[in-house]
Specification:
Chain lengths: 115, 208
């Protein structure tokens, strides 16, 4: 198994990219709040999208997936895909199943929040 | 690190691949462990979107953000450890591992301060929740998930610090060489996983 190790420069670039993306996430969350759009689905989607890019950078460079066999990448690919399906279907079920009581039910008992 | 290759492996490369593959399989099980919590978050947020957004606005962005930068930097220093060992600068390795462990401890200290504020306010999980400012069932769900997710994550940080300190001792004894350092690689993978989980927890609990 011939291996080409990730260079020191790649580590530094990955770190810088992570810092930039984290700062971008922070700035965008402020922009979404200030612009009156509130938090909401769009803000969440953008933040999670950036987080996914950051996670990929960590996995690919810091965790050396770039220099490893495909079998190891497959493990990540399968678990992330299954988790994605789990989350998407659960959210879809909750969003479309009208038998669910709307928020804020179930009503807590009296004194529940005063303890 | 054994000097003699275990008999079930035909080469050192095979041994290293088997060890790495086992580590990745373990990490996949960790992804699914945290994945259950992310799934609950998706479900409850879909049910109580307004309460979740309000609860997020009540969390202190500074705590989550400083801890994000700490963990990103610690991921970098632990990645540099592998680089140092590979490039025959093994004497740097124990110091880089110590620096990483200290950042992990700093993370836990900040988390502790934040927990103290939540306890004061009464933003506690499940039936212990009694925060008058946000008296909704949705906020209760949010803070229950907040405590379970950050608590499980903090346990992983604690275990990770243990792994880092153990590797620091091993590195100080020059157990890792440029040719043979697969155990060091596997230990750092665990620390990076802690970082990856936080990368997702940060926006979900503090930002949007």
């Amino acid at each position: 198994m011939a291996k080409r190790h990730i260079s020191g420069k790649a580590y530094v670039l990955t770190y810088v990219a992570l810092l930039v993306l984290a700062t971008l996430t922070l700035v965008l969350s402020w922009v979404f709040k200030r612009s009156g759009l509130g938090g909401g689905a769009a803000s969440l989607a953008v933040a999670i999208g950036i987080a996914a890019v950051k996670a990929f950078l960590v996995l690919w460079f810091f965790m050396h997936l770039a220099e490893q066999r495909f079998a190891n990448r497959l493990v990540v690919l399968v678990s992330v895909t299954l988790l994605g399906i789990l989350i998407a279907l659960t959210a879809t079920d909750v969003a479309t199943r009208h038998t669910f009581p709307p928020a804020p039910r179930p009503t807590p008992s009296a004194g529940f929040y005063e303890r | 690190m054994p000097l003699v290759l275990d008999e079930q492996y035909s080469s050192w490369a095979r041994r290293e691949h088997a060890l790495r593959f086992g580590m990745w399989t373990f990490l996949a099980s960790e992804i699914l462990l945290f994945g259950g919590l992310f799934t609950l978050y998706a479900g409850y947020r879909t049910m109580y979107p307004a309460a979740f957004e309000e609860a997020i606005r009540h969390n202190t962005v500074a705590y989550g953000t400083v801890n994000t930068y700490i963990l990103l930097t610690s991921s970098f220093t632990v990645a540099l450890t592998v680089w140092a060992v590979r490039h025959r600068r093994a004497r740097w390795a124990p110091w880089l591992l110590l620096a990483t462990a200290l950042q992990g401890m700093a993370f836990l200290v900040l988390k502790g301060f934040e927990y103290r504020e939540h306890i004061k306010e009464g933003a506690l999980p499940g039936p212990f929740y009694h925060w008058a400012e946000l008296p909704t069932f949705g906020a209760n769900r949010f803070y229950t998930l907040y405590w379970v997710a950050t608590g499980l994550h903090a346990l992983h940080v604690t275990a990770g610090i243990g792994v880092l300190l153990w590797m620091m001792v091993r590195a100080a004894r020059r157990a890792y060489t440029a040719e043979r350092h697969v155990m060091l690689e596997m230990g750092t993978l665990y620390w990076h996983l802690v970082d990856v989980v936080w990368i997702f927890l940060w926006p979900l609990l503090y930002l949007s």
